[in-house]
Amino acid sequence: MHDIQKILLKRLLSQNSQKYSVLTRGYNYDDNIVFHLKQLLAKNFIKKEGNLYTITLQGIQTITTYDLTELEDKGFKTFFLGFLCKYEGKYLIKEHLQGTINFYNLPSGKPWFGEQIESALSRTFKGNTQFALDPKYFSFRSLHVKTVKTSSGEILFDDAFAIYDVAVNKTQYDHIKLKKGIHWMTVEKIKHLPNRWPEIDFCILKNDTLSYQSYTVTSNYILGGV
After folding, report:
1. By its UniProt entry, which InterPro entries does this protein fall under (predicted)?
2. Alpha-carbon span 93 to 203, nearest angstrom
3. Which residue ranges does the chain devote to CATH 3.90.79.10?
4. pTM, to two decimals
5. Which of 34, 19, 9 has the alpha carbon at shortest distance from 152?
6. pLDDT tens digits for 182-215?
7. Which residues pair with residue 172 across a beta bridge?
8. Cβ-contact 41, 48 below 8 angstroms
């Protein structure tokens, strides 16, 4: 069983009947959290009644076969590498297609444990664009520490988002093959996007140059499918 599935069962074992936002805190679409919930539901380890998830007897029997003392669930902040990628007045913008409402942010990815940031920049940028850039093309711009809460005060996401400027040339632009949900957009089009994450406003619309930002956002973002 995947560790994320074990952690979800462990959370329900500690406190049953949890809302989606509480049960999945610290995880998002990049962690395939919807897939893991569906797996637990399909195996009858958990069930959903209304908007609450509960652990079943089968789930209890399964999770208690593991040594839970070795299963860490410390709720660390999630660290992302984000890209402010520009070419001739257009910026790369990423849709959050898994949400029940479409949200927009900068393309991003997470470094692996023990991975050098320089390597992670090239790898995660390629994951968004199918094009590998040498680390020398990335220039640190700012760190955004963002907590996203629901209108009722529950924490959905809690992350640190390191943003790097990426200015590509014509040859590089021609070789970029964008991942589904990522688009080149003009500033005028970006202005009219609904549900923008604050990083877009700070870095593109306001052209903010501060190296550090910390803020809380209210959003009822929900991943679709569960």
Report:
1. NUDIX_hydrolase-like_dom_sf
2. 12
3. 78-218
4. 0.70
5. 19
6. 999 999 999 999 889 999 999 999 999 899 999 9
7. none
8. yes
